[in-house]
Amino acid sequence: MKLLKHTPLALATCLSLALAPLAVAQDPAAQTSETASTKPVATTQYGQVSGTMKRGVNVFLGIPYGADTSETRFQPPQAPEPWNGVLEATSYPDSTPQLEGNTAVFASWQADPVPEMSENMLGLNIWTPGLDDRKRPVMVWLHGGGFQTGSGSSTAYEGVNLANRGDVVVVTINHRLNALGYLYLAGMTDDPAYADSGNVGTLDMVHALTWVRDNIENFGGNPDNVTIFGESGGGRKVSVLNAMGMAEGLFDRAIVQSGSMLSFRTPEQAHKDTLDFFKAVEIEDGDIDALKALSQDEIIAGLRKAAAMSSRSFSWGPVVDGRSLKYDPFTAPDPQPNADVPMLIGSNKDELSLWLMRPGAGEPKLSFQAVKSLIGEFVTEDEFEDIVEAYRGEFPDYSDGQILVAMASDVRYSSNAVRQAKKKAEEGAAPVWLYQFDWETPVMDGIYKTPHALEIPFAFDTLENSESMVGDTKAPQGIADQVSEAWISFARHGDPNARGLPFWPTVTPDDVVAMRFNTVSEVDTDYFDVEGAILIDGE
């Protein structure tokens, strides 16, 4: 019996609320113009781009890295058409058509104006301190939203502060999501054009990373020092890319924030999701021509209906199809894909509070049935009372609802982070570090404590854009200094040990050590070795 101490969730549930606001379309052919001498200009393999300056950082928004996907729906990405003249890269790219949501705690992350949605959304954004030959570390962010929603254009992901603080190049990307990115059609047609349809959203990411490899040197970055990092669904994307053979050599370090993922959809599971979607859009099974003819609004309506009509857990995501994605993480024959990539993995203390705590509506009831609905077989009815008492001992100031959150968060997030870190350590080819974010936000009378996504503005050092999530943006700045410096150090050196932190050891197969980020950050040397909290099997 092993037990998880003071921790939260691991299989990143999707943020249907779009942790990232959407973005504005760009037509390369229509948006060329002569640039003023004050605007930064850089050269890509497809043409020149001009950006803007913000606090000494060169900013390029909406650079196309792929062609309009409406012309090749459900097929792998294609290169964009080259353009003549200078493309104005001053507006975020469009985001994938998707279901929208809203949560008050994310209000300050909303872009103004709210960008548009379209299938012409394969664009990326770059923040760089200089267009020179410095060869700075490159940090490529993969947004949250569980493969279903979101974009790389949130104000929380703005790269100005990170670029200035660490002399690094920050990149955020948009890619296909939901059915447009992960509808598995290989079980319905032998047409080779759709053989990879269940993973084209991930192939977009590989395409973007290839673009970074081939172009980032012209933006002051080092193509041989690229870190991929992401939160929630973005952390899951990092997990997927680490298992993907065709992504080898495209990144050198990886950070998984609240998104450890150790298995993906099987072809059988993906086929069921596909059948549900055909029913939702009222198209005969296998009629791909009719599917391709659906309008954007019809796609969105289908996504909503498919989610509502499914009697099981419905979730878009990658498929182990034996082609573009051959294995789950750590299951490939030796050598494992990307085995030599150092990793930084972690979660937040009260992840599930984001969904379970409702301001003004009371807290969820603590009962065995409630626990069972959240974490299933991990707790039996006979064990329930003993485990609850153990949690009361660990969290004496927690209410019943917060105890429920802590139990579910430990099983669904933090335990998976630990498993992923231990598997990486057992591989032995590269070091791995583990963290937990503990600082509690005071917003909404403190009911969320340390919810899902809270660490994002600390990693990006964007507290000034996150008042709705953190309250007084100046009070926790010291913690943001620590987290962002650790992320920068990891990107630069492959080691998160940074100024302002105690020495941070690696995880080993026998010792699970974690950095606990808080007003006073400390190393927890027995992070996963406390008895009495929650039963975790499957080690």
Name the features.
single chain, 539 residues, alpha/beta, Rossmann fold, eleven-stranded mixed beta sheet, 15 helices, globular, disordered N terminus
Notes on the protein architecture:
The protein has helices at residues 160-166, 178-182, 200-215, 233-242, 267-280, 288-292, 296-309, 353-356, 368-375, 381-394, 400-412, 414-427, 456-459, 467-470, 477-493, and strands spanning 41-44, 47-50, 52-54, 57-64, 86-88, 123-128, 136-142, 169-173, 221-231, 253-257, 343-348, 432-437, 514-517, 522-524. With 539 residues, the protein is of the alpha/beta class. It has a single domain (1-36, 57-80, 89-539), classed as Alpha/Beta hydrolase fold, catalytic domain (Rossmann fold), CATH 3.40.50. The longest helix has 17 residues, at 477-493. It is globular and about 65 Å long. The relative contact order is 0.15.
**Share in β-strands:** 5-15%
* pLDDT < 50 stretches: 1-36, 531-535
State the CATH superfamily name: Alpha/Beta hydrolase fold, catalytic domain
| Helix fraction bin | 25-40%
Q: Class in CATH?
A: Alpha Beta
CATH topology (fold) name: Rossmann fold
- Overall, the morphology is globular
End-to-end Cα distance, whole Å, is: 10 Å
Question: What's the quick description here?
Answer:
The protein has 15 helices and 14 strands.
Topology summary:
Layout: E1 41-44, E2 47-50, E3 52-54, E4 57-64, E5 86-88, E6 123-128, E7 136-142, H1 160-166, E8 169-173, H2 178-182, H3 200-215, E9 221-231, H4 233-242, E10 253-257, H5 267-280, H6 288-292, H7 296-309, E11 343-348, H8 353-356, H9 368-375, H10 381-394, H11 400-412, H12 414-427, E12 432-437, H13 456-459, H14 467-470, H15 477-493, E13 514-517, E14 522-524
Parallel strand pairs: 2-5, 7-8, 7-9, 9-10, 10-11, 11-12, 12-13
Antiparallel strand pairs: 1-2, 3-4, 4-6, 6-8, 13-14
Helix pairs in contact: 5-7, 9-11
